[in-house]
Amino acid sequence: MSPALEATGLGVRHRRTWALRDCSLSVPAGRVAALVGPNGAGKTTLMHTAVGLLRPARGSVRVTGEAAFVAQDKPLYDGFTVAEMLAFGRRMNRHWDGAAAVARLDRLGIPLTRKAGRLSGGQQAQVAVTLALARRPDLLVLDEPLANLDPLARHDVMRSVMAEVAGRELTVLLSSHVVADLEDTCDWLVVLNGGRLQVSGDIEELLDGHLVLTGPDGASAAGTRVVAASRTGRQVSMLVKGPPPADPRWRARRPGLAELVMGYLRSPGSAALPHLTEVGA
Ligand SMILES: Nc1ncnc2c1ncn2[C@@H]1O[C@H](COP(=O)(O)OP(=O)(O)OP(=O)(O)O)[C@@H](O)[C@H]1O
């Protein structure tokens, strides 16, 4: 099956600044992919390029089928009611599933007569996602859909996106700064750092392929690939890729998603890119 999203040697520039360099990644169809990275990493640039809002300076990015995009600032028209925005969407889009959108908003308890400016932040996010889904996309691209939402609203938005993925052929790419929000819902991870791709892969496989080691200062880590290391007093803690080292003084355990992400973000020179050129390695 062709990947839902594929970038090959992708380089994108904003005037003279390279926002993305040499990014090669592919997200299989049907996945919920988390796109994470610090401010300025290039997440929005990657999303804009994927949906055709920006043109690559180098390489290419390809989406299989149709993509729908929800921008960071959830562009709803404050003075319009939800029903008016649905009517507008119907006029602007050839493939428009208005019935599914109305049913979705009904399930979420969002009144069609309410003006967008009078909806809560969580409701606005849900309406923006609903309008994007009504276009029946193959790929749904969400730029920080959870920003500024309280934990309950964040959970509700993620749960409702998951329900859509379960019910149809849909791939989701969503960016977030809060890794904990992504833990139960995403099954693919893309990490960008300073415009470079650091990680792209299946989350379970990535977690299985890494270890957190703790041991005394001076224990030998020979034979492992250290992603990141930190020291507390005489204790050393490391995120490593591959099998544990032979030195029996290390205690080893599987990392959590947040530990894996933080380990890579702390070490921009490390990369975990199976089947691809290792950037910065
Ligand atoms: N319109 C623009 N003009 C010039 N430079 C830009 C423009 N948009 C983004 N950049 C630069 O490109 C780089 C990547 O920005 P981008 O917005 O893609 O990052 P991001 O990972 O989405 O960041 P954030 O988490 O802060 O939203 C940054 O260095 C940024 O300053």
UniProtKB/TrEMBL annotation:
InterPro entries on file: AAA+_ATPase, ABC_transporter-like_ATP-bd, ABC_Transporter_VariousFunc, P-loop_NTPase
GO-annotated molecular function: ATP binding
The keyword Acetylation appears for this protein: no
Superkingdom: Bacteria
SMART domains: AAA
PROSITE patterns: ABC_TRANSPORTER_2
UniProt keyword annotations, A-Z: ATP-binding, Nucleotide-binding, Transport
Residue ranges occupied by any ABC transporter domain in the UniProt entry: 5-219
Protein name: ABC transporter ATP-binding protein
